[in-house]
Amino acid sequence: MSSSPAPRRPRERGGFGSVPGPRQRYPGEFALAVIRRPLALFEELAQLHGDVAGIRIAKQPVVLLSDPEDIRDVLVTHGRLFHKGRGLERARMLLGEGLLTSEDDLHLRQRRLAQPAFHRARITAYAETMATYAARRAAQWREGARLDVAREMAAYTLAVVGKTLFDTDIEGEAHEIGEALSAAIEAFNLSVLPFGELLEKLPIPTTLRFRRGRERLDATIYRLIAERRASGEDRGDLLSMLLMAQDSEGDGGGMSDRQLRDEAMTLLLAGYETTANLLAWTWYLLSQHPDVESALHAEVDAVPAERLGADDLARLPFTRAVLTESMRLFPPAWIIGRRALQPYRIGEHVLPARTIVLTSQWVVHRDPRWWPDADRFQPTRWMPGGSALDPSRPKFSYFPFGAGTRVCIGEQFAWLEGTLALATIARRWRLRLVPGAPVVPQPIVTLRVRGGLPMTAHAR
Predict the structure, then answer these.
(1) How many Å apart are CA 82 and CA 355, to the nearest integer?
(2) What is the CATH number of the domain that holds 111?
(3) Which of 126, 146, 214, 392 has the maximal Cβ count within 10 Å?
(4) Whole-prediction pTM value?
């Protein structure tokens, strides 16, 4: 495997400036493509126009980078030359100035304040909650029952994040809170368009559902913050850590209620949405690959503990490899956007200031230059001696949690939760896709399964 393959050559001239790309055949073509078929659009850009490929959307230059070295430069080496892209700028409607959306000094301060809540020892303490809730979810299923596994995994992760973030049992509210989060997420595609600000002001169904969802979530989060401030308790959850946090490198202050709300909303969305999608896609892939499923079952059955915990992770390397490979093929975070603060050079191309720069895990994780049998679900590639561990593979050919100063703060939380949930449920159940059920990726903020994932449960 070569770390410096020959660049793919563009097939036609379009794009902007010296950046190659397709020609727009009719007004609004690319804006519509971003809404209707973004995965196909970005795959075509990379395959037909090379590692630096551009389009314009309503005069806004947009460039997709697909070379791992260019991706590293934008996300890490020259990260200070970029701000978040339009998508996360618009996400402030829901998330406010949380870790996902804040910039510069505010982002650095908030990350300093939040970091202790994600210390390895603190995360490990949540393992019992994660395994207990997974076992509880599995105990509710019945032989032959038809389940929407996407919804089941969302209910599970929402229960976990409610307990670990707020030390409250929100399983009874899971459907209502999940619906509110879904309404906010589904409004996202419209909001990122150049005319999204106008659409937000119109009383159309999507924006009305978004506003109701945001109000529902705000009411819950502000109530929990007020209760905790009044009690002054440290209940061992993330909210307690955030309330106690002091900015020792800055003004010595803590977070305001608004800052707490923004961080809590960000962590609620991230902790609920991304891991739920990871698990849903993993169950789908396992159902299509019984050999991989059998190897997973052999590993989880060999762990003697009645209830799995953090100490068992070392005995579950294949379980983690299954999740790792699932995130390669179906990355929950499927695209990252940045906005250039000044003109930026990539090879022979100079991108104008304010160019939107995109890097897509969906595209890069499936690039055959870096991945032998790129479309094949093959967790063994992540085991000792596997091709994914070849040191010549560029590091940024796999970046499911982002990179640089904005790498996902909850990465270790996600690994722990995903591994324990998958192993705990796989000990009891096989899940089989309902025959004829369509399985279609729905790329919004995260990579969902469009319309849910109907599967039947079979006891082992």
Answers:
(1) 10
(2) 1.10.630.10
(3) 126
(4) 0.88
